[in-house]
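Because discrete structure vocabularies remain unfamiliar, it helps to consider an illustrative case, giving the amino acid sequence and backbone structure tokens:
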Amino acid sequence: MKQEPTRLADQLRVRLEGEILSGELAPGDRLDETKLAARFSVSRTPVREALHQLATAKLINLRPRQGAVVAAVTVQELLQMFEVMAELEAVCAGLAARRMTPAERKQLEESHERCADLAKSGDVNAYYQENQVFHETLYAGAHNEFLENMTSNTRNRLAPYRRFQLHHPGRIRRSLQEHASVVEAIREGESELAAERMRGHVSIQGDVFSDLVSALPPSYVQAKTA
């Protein structure tokens, strides 16, 4: 069966994302559409879409007449993005605790249960995909379209790093536990508690942030330049 272009583009994006975060593709490396299409035996259309997704996540820069180039990010920028993400998701969780309908709460609980099943399987990519469904269900449950769009856009920029985090030993287990605590607060309608727990789930500070930065290729995360 022929794959849908969007699905194929997603697969290419994940593949290239992994090569960038592993250091196989370093900052400054050029990604040529024609060469990538030949390498993966696909047309240039899904390649182009995958590159746009990577650009949205700030993993590459799309430059006029130069094409796509692997981007660098500073430690300060990465920390700032996670700080903003934690606050946005905390607001979503707080509003969701007050506004989610019974049907939406059931969807959130079902997604959490699927995450639990996938955690047992050890399939990081499958867990990440369902984890994304969990968070998107919560965004929608806030019933604030402007906030939902802003949070989704910020999450897309951080998606590669959040996916990378799940490969750290024990992270999936902790993620699942944190999900359970958020679901419990939302089920009880505890707005402030739900926000606090979601903020803690997304925030990466101290040893957690140090572990993430140390696991990324040295050439990828750099000190802030003048």
